[in-house]
Amino acid sequence: MLMSNTQSLEAKRIPSAVDWVASRSLAGAGRRVEDVFEQLGIPVSFEKDGEICAESEPAEYIYKVVSGTVRSTKILDDGRRQIGAFYMAGDIFGLEPGDDYHFSAEAVTHAEVLAVKRSTAFAWASQDGDFARLLWNVTAQHLQRAQDHILLLGRKTALERVATFILEMADRLAKEGALELPMMRQDIADYLGLTIETVSRTMTHLESTHAISLNSSRQIALRSRSGLNRVNAC
Amino acid sequence: MLMSNTQSLEAKRIPSAVDWVASRSLAGAGRRVEDVFEQLGIPVSFEKDGEICAESEPAEYIYKVVSGTVRSTKILDDGRRQIGAFYMAGDIFGLEPGDDYHFSAEAVTHAEVLAVKRSTAFAWASQDGDFARLLWNVTAQHLQRAQDHILLLGRKTALERVATFILEMADRLAKEGALELPMMRQDIADYLGLTIETVSRTMTHLESTHAISLNSSRQIALRSRSGLNRVNAC
DNA sequence: CGGGACGTTGAACCAAATCAAAACAGGTGG
DNA sequence: CCACCTGTTTTGATTTGGTTCAACGTCCCG
């Protein structure tokens, strides 16, 4: 869909970025490592549902989310879909040990990302231990989240899954007690390994037990964090 | 249980390893990066069900499996257990971005591991880009496996889960078509997010459809890899 | 040969899925 | 401003895959 967007990257800016890193890689020590993406990244924006990268395509870029929300997905032959993670502002994704992406990534909302060529990032990391350490750290944190999610999918009930989800989202994007979910019910269902109906019913149930209140389907207020924590086994 | 074993590590050998890495870290360039664990690691062995590390304890060591099989587990308050991964000979585990382990690890069978102090490994990695790259690679591969497992737990049926499991184990430890499972049914169930009964029934079903044959409960022969691949959605 | 751990099988049950329909929320255009 | 359309969410009725509960086999190992 937004393939043209992705492909145009190459023609537009990348070659100069490669030259840049080659010429400055040893001068990078003074640079703040957190800002490497900001300095080397090409800003790209994706409309809602735009495809940022596709499973089993060459993993040419690493991405950092500037704004918006991104989902990583895997799809089975018959269309069943699983969302592995949501990435929000500040999150880095697309780091692959092999040559190809191992999942697809799509914009949940309109999203702005910074794209850095994999080769550029690796070249930089080989010169700058702090940056290498940052990349490892990002990967290891993703792994921890994945392990938590494995526990959720393998052993938690629908009620526990939804409670965990709401608490996770509250931590990541709450402004004083209320949160605006960027994704629709189908995305939540595919993240939690449930159906939309079960997600909807469970939300309603949490509202009826005064754990949350649903301003609109996307806007949730935490009524009782302790209630959510209680229902969320841990 | 084997806490004494783990704790004795410190007294026994670690301090000398720290000195060693300090004195030789810059001389390490000629060393084969794959062998760093063999050179720096302290061999430790664990009996069946021995605890190698525990969730939320300080992540003091990184481990490499020499022989045997290890499971990583997370447990909910009420005892529900999820196995995140199995580690076999050659696998590295225990790499944590934070200061504490994020899961427990136990020996499924009698297991020999090499333990390297986290601080030692990180010190080495900061001097040796190849070793840093190796550690990142290990982490990123674990992440990919975790993502595949998330898909399995979120969206696959019991039959598909068991088929996927058998194919995975066949890839990792098959000798000409037959494989000897190191773990019991409860471990398989906790890995696949099922119950022992369902795992057992599903194995029986796969045998009755001539996809596998069960020599004993632990010894499986792949009768029809294509049959398994067919049942295993992907 | 007897006991305990592990594995299989059977029957009843239940949490979540599926199937179906109604309610809701934005847009768009008259 | 309202009527209409389309995509999304909620609610209801029914079904089902997998769990639970219960019993029986099997395999070691002393």
Automatic annotation (TrEMBL), chains A, B:
<protein>
    <submittedName>
        <fullName>CRP/FNR family nitrogen fixation transcriptional regulator</fullName>
    </submittedName>
</protein>
<dbReference type="InterPro" id="IPR036390">
    <property type="entry name" value="WH_DNA-bd_sf"/>
</dbReference>
<dbReference type="Pfam" id="PF00027">
    <property type="entry name" value="cNMP_binding"/>
</dbReference>
<keyword id="KW-0238">DNA-binding</keyword>
<dbReference type="InterPro" id="IPR050397">
    <property type="entry name" value="Env_Response_Regulators"/>
</dbReference>
<keyword id="KW-0805">Transcription regulation</keyword>
<dbReference type="InterPro" id="IPR012318">
    <property type="entry name" value="HTH_CRP"/>
</dbReference>
<feature type="domain" description="HTH crp-type">
    <location>
        <begin position="156"/>
        <end position="226"/>
    </location>
</feature>
<dbReference type="InterPro" id="IPR036388">
    <property type="entry name" value="WH-like_DNA-bd_sf"/>
</dbReference>
<dbReference type="InterPro" id="IPR000595">
    <property type="entry name" value="cNMP-bd_dom"/>
</dbReference>
<dbReference type="InterPro" id="IPR014710">
    <property type="entry name" value="RmlC-like_jellyroll"/>
</dbReference>
<keyword id="KW-0804">Transcription</keyword>
<dbReference type="Pfam" id="PF13545">
    <property type="entry name" value="HTH_Crp_2"/>
</dbReference>
<dbReference type="InterPro" id="IPR018490">
    <property type="entry name" value="cNMP-bd_dom_sf"/>
</dbReference>
